[in-house]
Description:
GO terms for molecular function: arginine kinase activity; ATP binding; creatine kinase activity. The protein is an alpha+beta fold.
Amino acid sequence: MIYIDTFIKVIRFIRSSFVSSHILYSVNMQVDSLKNLQTKIKSDEQNHSLTKKYLTDDIVNKYQSIKTNMGGTLAQCVNTNARNPKALLPRACDLNAYETFKDFFDAVIADYHKVPGGKIQHPKSNFGDIKSLSFSDLNTYGNLVVSTRVRLGRTVEGFGFGPTLSKETRIELEKKISTALSNLSGEYEGTYYPLTGMSEEDRLKLISDHFLFRNDDSVLEAAGGYIDWPTGRGIFINKQKNFLVWINEEDHIRVISMQKGGDLIAVYKRLAGAIQELSKSLKFAFSDRFGFITFCPSNLGTTLRASVHAKVPMLASLPNFKEICEKHGIQARGTHGEHTESVGGIYDLSNKRRLGLTEIDAVTEMHSGVRALLELEVMLQEYNKGAPEGVMPVEPLTYLAKLLEGASIEKCYARKYLTPEIIKKYDGKRTTHGATLAHMIRNVAYNNRSICPRTGEAECYSTFIDYLDPLICDYHNVKDPSFKHPAPTFGDLSKLPFGDLDPTGKFIVSTRVRVGRSVEGFLFPTIMSKSDRLKLEQVISGALKGLTGEHAGTYYPLTNMTEEDRKQLVEDHFLFKNDDPVLRDAGGYRDWPVGRGIFHNKAKTFLVWVCEEDHMRIISMQKGGDLASVYKRLIEGINAIGKSMKFAHSDKYGYITCCPSNLGTSMRASVLLKIPKLSAQPKKLNEICEKYILQARGKFYLLLFNSQYVSFKYYIFVFYKHRNPLDKNCNGL
Length: 733
């Protein structure tokens, strides 16, 4: 009898466990194998996700046959990254995925959340003393905030996410949550609208109120978020329409508090009270390491996202807008959230950190960060009043000078010569076309390892002469402050004093000579308008298409470039990209890729970059050490292009370029060398380079090139060892 009773109890236990956990055995989402998904992710050049970074062969081998106790797989987690190259993160197949696939998710989470030392941990939930909050209204800072919103995500313990949630269980989950919502009272009392069977009247009303969530996000779709749509999903709204709950959108529950204006305290208090009430009837999944468990790793921890819709058009037009936001702990999104664009200069600004801090800490960070951004927007609007149309807005000179204090005064020329007297003299001053000293130093202000400013147009060199001339003399080691660059002399191309530097072919891999050129009458790419950039591209590409002989070739505009052309240019190492933060912060990538392109001849030995840093980078190159051929091809190309346009030139500075470091000849001659024995003696190598004014880069191969632009005539440029531009009696090698 005892055995029978025991047997019955075991059967009942198994049955009850199976019934209450039938989701463990109901997997709806079928995906490709983990190995195939990894191959697709790794081979996609457009994919820069953390999934790509951490989905290593070891991870694939370890987890490709492993499932969670809900039947979920790592393949389901990373499927969205294979289908959406721009998606940064994987999605958890269920709440157990984070521990089952620990080695993968820990690496992703530690990287995304910038976890110190990689040790993931989260404090207990703490919303703070709701009665004594002291946040100021965010509309105190310029009346720029349209609305304020705070939301939380929650997972009901025992239920899976989209990939491992059956239709029946999703309905069961919906019922459980909607019942809890129906018991709310006071300011939270409202109505639940299930998406299934929703009347047209209700649907249109919810759309009008911007409350209705949809199934049009490709990232969420590929993650399994829309399985059995719209079954088991719905929206709860209180009577005042300032409290909202989404059921089974991305997470099981999204609790949202919102209202017009910038009163963060009122919005936050409403949310905190609501989650406290719901916690009485629903048990939410929580981990001491991850905090509250959510579908997306980005929301782990507090899951709290406090945001404002704010009008920040000038701030948003800055080339490093997102980086500025991140510096203040803020994430910027489009008007309608993630993966959307801004409408009317309105952006969604929210706290970036969720993991490793409490709810009150997160909302405090958000308030401080948004406040700083709003104050900067007000400064930008004031400082850029009256600026010519199309010129990049820029922060006040005093603001950037403060940032520049982080740079080395010994190594950074931009900071060294930005004295209080210079700031006072030039603050607010503009060139004819709107360039300011602030424009010139912002790339260094945000990148303290950079050393030189970037000018906005040729006129900068005269308008800001008291700042630039001492800087130029110092950088180029010019002793005479009344310096004057020699007239251009390319030499007799039929009697060059050099030929093949390595006739045996033992040492030199390749030779390359390039110059920069600016077209007179155009601003530099850093402040140029979109329309002017297109005009400039038309002028330059027209001249390039008219080249003949060995210079004849094809122009490839970056705009609407075919995938075939792009791959070929990448393979040839000809394609320039928009990945240099120094040039980006100078404004060099504005309107990317419009107005930019690449020209090369049929032999691929003559190349021109259009509107990269300068208007043109003209390059001649070939295998081996025949410097004479490379130089001759370059000069003939320059002369041919010069027949169709006038290059910006000054008797004082030589050829005018965006960066003062390239003034003068703007020439950079280089060879790629194989010298393993000498490169193993860095001290000796440096002595030789110093003696002949060369710079060396590289490890296995050495790239040697001239380190002085302003001092020399063209045809003996690479051989001169003296730096004084007025010393014409320089010795050759």
